[in-house]
Write a structure and sequence with these properties.
- It is a single chain.
- The chain is mainly α.
- The chain has a domain of about 150 residues.
- Helix content is about 60%, strand content about 0%.
- The chain has eight helices and two strands, in the order ββαααααααα.
- The chain has a two-stranded antiparallel sheet with strand order 1-2.
- The chain starts with a strand and ends in a 16-residue tail after the last helix.
Length: about 210
């Protein structure tokens, strides 16, 4: 793959298509935060949602996001495609990140793809939820997604001195550099533990030779 600059692998010859694969990391926050806040506001101002029900839907939205994050990462982004087209799509969506994990412009999802996926998921959630439950669930699903995006960005570009964040950084770096499959959770290792995909730990360092 040809590089566009010193930090990016070029995916498309067409400059417009290529530009759509790059996104400034602040964009998801600017795009999705007002939507999440508006949905939360509507839950109380329009639907007069009880606080206990709000808390339940908020927790459900966050939990389902972590499951979605795990499922997409494991079964879609790391899909073992057999065809040339399939391999190209997997590389486009995620393989490029493994080839160049420090590329700052490809650590968060471009808005065009994110909007399409969120629209589809909203229609899916609407089959099971409605009204305040749907809007609160959707708001915290979005918040879960934003947490994922920025934890992912931070694991690649910040030292992470907080104990929990430092653990998540090391956990994700093992996914990239241990040479083992697994550790698909980024914002949480919950589902890796549930489904047995923690893949162990790095092998111990070699012993120093005695003089």
């Amino acid at each position: 793959m040809q590089r566009v600059e010193s930090t990016s692998i070029r995916l498309f010859k067409n400059p417009l298509l290529e530009s759509l694969t790059h996104v400034h990391p602040i964009i998801p926050l600017v795009l999705w935060t007002p939507i999440a806040l508006a949905l939360i506001w509507r839950s109380f101002s329009v639907y007069q949602m009880p606080l206990a029900e709000f808390g339940e839907m908020a927790c459900a939205g966050l939990l389902i996001w972590t499951f979605m994050e795990y499922g997409l990462h494991r079964f879609v982004f790391h899909y073992e495609a057999g065809s040339k087209l399939g391999k190209s799509l997997v590389f486009l969506f995620h393989g490029v990140h493994h080839d160049d994990p420090q590329d700052k412009t490809r650590l968060v999802m471009p808005p065009a793809g994110a909007i399409l996926i969120m629209a589809f998921l909203w229609l899916l959630f609407a089959l099971f939820l409605s009204g305040a439950d749907l809007e609160t669930f959707g708001a915290f699903f979005i918040i879960g997604y934003l947490c994922y995006d920025y934890i992912h960005y931070a694991t690649h570009h910040f030292p992470m001195r907080n104990r929990v964040l430092r653990y998540l950084k090391r956990y994700h770096m093992l996914h990239h550099f241990s040479g083992q499959d697994g550790r698909y959770g980024v914002s949480s290792p919950l589902w890796d533990f549930a489904f047995g995909t923690t893949a162990g730990n790095l092998p111990p360092p070699p012993r120093k030779k005695e003089d």
